[in-house]
Amino acid sequence: MTTQSAVVSSLEPVKGTAVIHAGDYINKLSGEQIEHECKRKLDEGCKELILNFADTEIVNSIGISILLGVIDTASNKGAKVVFSEMNEDTVELFEMLGLTKHVTLA
Amino acid sequence: MAEHDHKLIHAFGALAELGQEITNKNNFQETIRTSLHLISGALGIMRGAVARFSRFGHELNMLAIRGLGDDFPLSLSLTLEDERQFLSCGLTPIDIPQAKVLPFFQVYDASFERRSLELFVPLVVRDEIVGAIFLGEKATGEAYTNYEKEIVCAMGQHIGVAIAQRNLMAEIERHAEENRQLFDEMRSTYHDTVKAFAAAIDCKDKYTEGHSVRVGKFSEIIAMELGWGAEEVEGAAVAGYLHDVGKLTVERKIINAPYRINAKESKELNGHPGVGFEILQPIHHPYTDVPLAAKYHHERLDGRGYPDGLYDREIPYIAKIVTLADSFDAMTTDRPYKARRPAKEVVEDLQRNAGKQFAPELVTAFLGGMLKELQGEDRTKRFRRLLGRDYMEAEGIVETLKYTLNEMAPTTPMTYVAAAGQVIL
Ligand SMILES: [Fe+2]
Ligand SMILES: [Fe+2]
Fold first, then answer.
1. B96: distance to nearest CA of chain A, Å?
2. What domain count does chain B have?
3. B249 and B377 inside one domain
4. Which residue of A63, A92, A98 is in closest CB contact with B138?
5. Which A residues in the span 54-93 are in contact with B, Cβ-Cβ below 8 Å?
6. Which residues are CB-contacts of B320 (< 8 A; sequence separation ≥ 6)?
């Protein structure tokens, strides 16, 4: 499996919205990169985090835990989290573990 | 695939990873943090913590914490009743909302409720509480199923073992430290005793006040110049301090005689190495044979010494060191029948007697140390402190030392030839 960049984020034209592109494998290392990026965006005052999972194939347990942490941090700061472009397996996993209950799906 | 199976596979993946994380010798804090991630990720839990139990403070101290907020207590105390209860529960998860009978849950009720904590798992390893896991509600909002509690148990067991192992390591380190301190104390007690003995020996002989202490220091210098290790150097010092302990049994008037003593008196005085050996025999120094140093410190390489008239190789090395230190001190201090001799003369005497009375390599090591100090390469001022500045800085001493050392231990064949005055081209 080739991981290009684990995380690429860009500020969308809409003010206060950040898009973070997750890599193909979300584990401890890439998860922490996502977490770090999200925290940075939230600290910058971002009110909507869009996590794009278009490239994501596998999310391990630590990855899940970190994503849950991101959701928690965002909600504490009154920001909205959007999960977008998940594949079928990822949706199934996120639903099973309850992540989808706390985010907006796109 | 049924969702139940799917969950099981996901959870087992986490369990396998946890086992790996714990067996990897990573940083302990990091291991615990990762473990908390693994439990949270396995079951989809947003908040939780792992704590370590301090048996001295009777409290749970947080090692890793997720999403519980800054106001959550980092240290939670337990009563004996709590401890008893947790011990008997073992690794069984306790449903926090239903556990209000125990003082622990009453005291921290508000904190637990504010963060919707649902499960509390006491980590018990070999009948000892080592820590605890706190878990918040699941992200799905559903209650924990029995099989999920079992997974928490299995993971808790791994974490408990990791903490127990860490505790054990800490205890071993503490014991090692205690041992080291104890050893240091014993060592300083031993040294004080040795010095007290040296002072007692020196008391007997008013003309050679401080002789034993100086011989100890000179022996130490020689051992250091030979490049010996710290323990061996220490041993040499002790051998020097105690070399004349046998004099404690010699009549004071003989030791202090302001004249050359007669044959009978000399026989009594010459018995002091043997007596010293008897006295010191029970002393076991791990690096140096202190008793033998006392017994043979009046032997000579040429076999003309006493008590046994041993030759060169028969004399223990430590005794040769003490012999040199002893004679050097005798030459450099005033005696009842002899004034101290100038340093230059003493150096020449040592050279002349190298190979007869003294081991030549010890003489060169000792004089080498002296030269280093006089040339400023060695700033400890050992010789100046023991012999006085004026004495050591007398004119011509550096030249004498250089010349003597060149003759005794030429650094290159050419300098040797040149020093001997027979330059061959
Ligand atoms: Fe002696
Ligand atoms: Fe002596």
1. 21
2. 2
3. yes
4. A98
5. 60-66, 68-69, 71-72, 92-93
6. B301, B358, B359, B362
For residues B21 and B80, state if they share a domain: yes
pTM, two decimal places: 0.63
Asked whether B60 and A88 are in contact (CB, 8 A), the reply is no
Q: Cβ A96–B44 below 8 Å, yes or no?
A: yes
**Per-residue tens of pLDDT for chain A, all 106 residues:** 444 445 656 555 566 899 999 999 999 889 999 999 999 999 999 999 999 999 999 999 999 999 999 999 999 999 999 999 999 999 999 999 999 999 999 8
Q: B140 vs A66: CB contact, 8 Å cut-off?
A: no
Domain that holds residue B323: 206-424
Centre of ligand 1 from the C-alpha of residue B327, in Å:
9
Domain identity same for B217 and B328 = yes
Which residues does chain B have within 8 Å of residue A39's beta carbon, measured at their own beta carbons?
none
**Residue among A61, A92, A102 whose CB faces B14 most closely:** A61
Residue B17 contacts A where some CB pair is shorter than 8 Å: yes
CATH code (residue B352): 1.10.3210.10
Using the Cβ of B140 and the Cβ atoms of chain A, whether some distance falls under 8 Å is answered with yes
Hey, which residues 320-379 in chain B have their CB within 8 Å of chain A?
Answer: none
CB contact under 8 A, A101 and B141: yes
Going by the DSSP 8-state scheme, the letter that residue B409 receives in this structure is S
Using the mean position of ligand 2's atoms as its centre, give its distance from the Cα of residue B7 in Å: 85
The DSSP code sequence of B343-395 is HHHHHHHHHHHBTTTB-HHHHHHHHHHHHHHHTTS-TT-HHHHHH-HHHHT-T
Q: Are residues B294 and B405 both part of a single domain?
A: yes
ipTM over cut 0.90: no
Contact A102 B6 (CB under 8 A): no
Q: What are B75's two structure tokens? A: 């240290």
For residues B216 and B300, state if they share a domain. Answer: yes
Q: What is the pLDDT of residues B158-169, one digit of tens each?
A: 999 999 999 999
Phi and psi, residue B192, nearest 5°: -60, -40
Q: Six-digit token pair at B157?
A: 């067991």
In a domain, B199, yes or no: no
Q: What are phi and psi of B58, to 5 degrees?
A: 50, 50
A48-52 and A80-84 strand pairing: parallel
Final residue of a structural domain among B125, B148, B173: B173
Q: Domains in chain A, please, with CATH?
A: 28-105 (3.30.750.24)
Contact A61 B37 (CB under 8 A): yes
Please indicate, yes or no, if residue B379 is contained in any of the structural domains.
yes
